[in-house]
Design goal:
disordered N terminus; single chain; Four Helix Bundle (Hemerythrin (Met), subunit A); 248 residues; 2 domains
Length: 248
């Protein structure tokens, strides 16, 4: 059962700490812009992860699929959902300079996405929708994510390689793969050996993806990316289960 007393004690400590920081007559009453870094970090840790972030990300991913199928009715519906959630998200992200920049970047990407959707440009729409998902991990990091946001970065880069393959942009594909390799090198040690089989399968998938990029084989690259994205989801689930098991 949820214990209100336990929940209220840390909140009381937080607000007492914030209050003592501005008790002096020489210190002006703090505004959201006036909080120091330490106070901002405290606030961020008690603000729950906004559901709007997930809605924007999932519908951006959906637009990539729907635009590829030239289903502009579905694309339009998803765009409306993204706009609604973005408008709800903005006031929740106004706590510091970092989040304001992220919101500005999201707004620019969303405006660009609207233009491409209105023009019914298939590839451009897919490209900009994926660019919007690139921002989501940074936005999520403003709050207290339940798992590593690097999984989102891996997924973005995988989809980007898929789009590179469509245009035979092999230099870009290789550069994006190198970013994946670097992220995975930092993420892999955090996953318990309990999930060594999933880790091994992901390593094999990345090896196959690298080879297909070197071979400039678009069809094989796209198949490897599909498998990679599926295994990213599995590894994210593994790390989440690992974190939950450590709570008990």
């Amino acid at each position: 059962m949820f214990n209100k007393k336990i929940f209220l004690i840390p909140l009381a400590i937080v607000f007492f700490s914030l209050g003592t920081g501005c008790s002096s007559n020489k210190t002006p009453t703090p505004t959201p812009q006036g909080y120091n870094v330490k106070q901002q970090n405290i606030i961020q840790k008690i603000v729950p992860l906004p559901s709007q972030l997930g809605a924007i990300e999932s519908n951006s991913e959906g637009i990539i699929i729907d635009a590829g199928n030239k289903d502009w009715n579905k694309v339009g519906s998803r765009l409306k959902v993204i706009k609604t959630n973005f408008n709800q998200l903005k006031p929740l992200m106004q706590m510091n300079a970092t989040s304001k920049k992220i919101i500005n970047d999201m707004g620019k990407s969303l405006n660009n996405l609207e233009k491409q959707v209105s023009a019914k440009k298939e590839y451009e729409t897919m490209l900009v929708a994926n660019a919007l998902t690139k921002i989501m991990p940074d936005a999520t990091d403003i709050f207290k994510p339940s798992t590593s946001t690097n999984f989102g970065r891996l997924s973005y880069l995988g989809r980007e390689i898929d789009l590179n393959a469509d245009k035979n942009a092999w230099t870009s594909a290789k550069a994006n793969f190198n970013k994946i390799d670097k992220i995975w090198a930092s993420l892999k040690p955090k996953i318990s050996s309990t999930y060594s089989s999933d880790i091994s399968k992901f390593n094999i998938t990345l090896s196959d993806l690298s080879k297909s990029i070197t071979d400039k084989n678009s069809g094989v690259v796209k198949g490897n990316v599909k498998l990679m994205l599926e295994r990213v989801i599995l590894l994210e689930s593994d790390l989440s289960k690992q974190a939950n098991s450590q709570l008990f």
